[in-house]
Design brief:
With about 140 residues, the chain is of the alpha+beta class. Helix content is about 25%, strand content about 35%. It has helices at about 1-5, 10-25, 75-80, 105; strands spanning about 30-35, 45-50, 50-60, 70-75, 85-95, 100-105, 115, 120, 125-130. A 6-stranded mixed β-sheet has the order 1-2-3-5-6-9. A hairpin with a 4-residue loop joins strand 5 and strand 6 (about 100-105). The relative contact order is 0.16. The mean pLDDT is about 90.
Length: about 140
């Protein structure tokens, strides 16, 4: 597990979760719950408000350089589609200085492309949340 925690992608992901995860959930009027282990986990947050529940996965990922698209690993996409509760994908994009996302359920009905092991969607399918601050 130590190797996982030392990966740059893991550290960037943790930073993105800290910047946007709880804030996003609270902005929707929900309470956030996160895994209590410092290891790989299937989802970053579970959000609850009464009987309403959704999953939130935060990605620290820039949009594609030459195409106006963003995406996730196909394996994650397939895993998230097996979950009972709806899943929201929230992208913290350092190259755009922005945070945006979309419900996986809505992305399932949007045109997508596969690039190897990655599935991507047009940026036009994403909903803007907010700009990153200079400190972030």
């Amino acid at each position: 597990m130590n190797n996982f925690l030392n990966l740059q992608t893991t550290q960037l992901g943790t930073m993105a979760e800290n910047i946007a995860g709880i804030e996003f959930i609270q902005s929707k009027g929900y309470t956030s719950y996160a895994p209590c282990i410092s290891a790989s986990h299937p989802i970053d947050f579970i959000a609850m408000s009464g009987a309403s529940i959704f999953n939130l996965d935060v990605k620290c990922k820039s949009k594609m350089t030459y195409y106006p698209m963003t995406g996730i690993d196909k394996a994650d996409f397939e895993k998230y589609n097996t979950y009972t509760f709806p899943t929201y994908l929230l992208f913290v994009d350092p190259s755009q200085g922005a945070i945006y996302g979309q419900w996986l359920q809505k992305l399932n009905y949007q045109p997508s492309k596969e690039f190897g092991k990655v599935i991507v969607w047009p940026m036009s399918t994403m909903k803007f949340y907010r700009q990153l601050t200079n400190e972030e």
